Amino acid sequence: MTLLLLLWLVSYYAGTLGTHTEIKRVAEEKVTLPCHHQLGLPEKDTLDIEWLLTDNEGNQKVVITYSSRQVYSNFTEEQKGRVAFASNFLAGDASLQIEPLKPSDEGRYTCKVKNSGRYAWSNVILKVLVRPSKPKCELEGELTEGSDLTLQCESSSGTKPIVYYWQRIREKEGEDEHLPPKSRIDYNNPGHVLLQNLTMSSSGLYQCTAGNEAGKESCVVRVTVQYVPSIGMVAGAVTGMVAGALLIFLLVWLLIRRKDKERYEEEERPNEIREDAEAPKARLVKPSSSSSGSRSSRSGSSSTRSTANSASRSQQTLSTEAPPQPGLATHAYSLVRPEMRGSEPKKVHHATLTKAETTPSMIPSQSRAFQTV
After folding, report:
1. In this structure, how many other beta carbons lie within 10 angstroms of the beta carbon of residue 371?
2. Basic and acidic residues: which segments have biased composition (predicted)?
3. N- or C-end of the chain: fewer Cβ atoms within 10 A?
């Protein structure tokens, strides 16, 4: 009998002092906060039940109550339609149900039950876990061979702590899923990974996973390393291009010179006098009188076909071939050469030709004297 009384007292005081429970749930899910009592069976009319919430900032508000056979639950717009008693609270189960959970539901919940001067309460600490938001993957640095590149990954929301994990996605058989050997994690920014001394093999698809107790989300980013030629190769290429340009310029210049030379030779070929060519034939013109010699002189002075050098050579030839003889009549003849192409005739003064006509010359009676113009 004494033992039964002791057990009853222990259970009574335990219900009076209350219990403490901690529950973790993910946002948008359903949760049931337990609260059991034995105070409603004797007198149901005097039974009062109340759930209170104390948030992380210390503010307290009423969630749901039962009093005077009425249930009151819509105290705020935020809680409207989301909170209710989970079971038959009059039979001893005053558990609270919340669906769907929101981050603002996190805090310490207190269940108070009163009936006929007796009290019972229980405390439940509710932690609402928020999954990480989809992270954003970014690249910072140069995507060139030999440079450094930082992979950045960050979630804008989610329950702390958030753990970040980078890995390489295998796209082909034989590719490694691990990060390149020269990779370093920035512990001050867990979502940042530094890829040092990039090589062409560093190209590929990289995935970042952000996770916590509620779940995980991931994002991917592609790394394409570009090949950069060395300074020696660039200098060689530039030198080759310059040498090629100079060679082309030289070839063009030589071609132009050759064309100019051929054109010059074509223009000068008609003006050349070959040594083995036959001299042009002279034609004889016999004037009728001395006045005809004058006309020939005048025509020779005005004509563009005779030259002074030809007249001089003709006079010397006549002097050597037919020396003058006294007593014979003098007749003037003119030797006219055909026009030579390409040479411009020089004018001969009229007085010179007149003086040449009056010079007496003796020739045999069988021949005639000729004057070459």
Report:
1. 24
2. 263-281
3. N
Closest CA to 69 of 46, 92, 38: 46
Model pTM score = 0.53
Question: What is the secondary structure of 36-99 as a DSSP string?
Answer: B-S-SSS-STT-EEEEEEE-TTS-EEEEEEEETTEEE--SSTTTTTTEEE-S-GGGTB--EEES
Residue with tokens 């979630």: 155
Whether cis (ω within 30° of 0) applies to the bond prior to 100 is yes
Which helix or strand (DSSP H or E) is residue 110 part of? strand 107-115
The whole-angstrom separation of Cα 343 and Cα 214 is 112
354, two tokens: 């007149």
Largest CA distance in the chain: 204
Rounded distance, CA 133 to CA 143, Å?
Answer: 28
Instruction: Give the β-pairing of 60-67 and 70-72.
Output: antiparallel
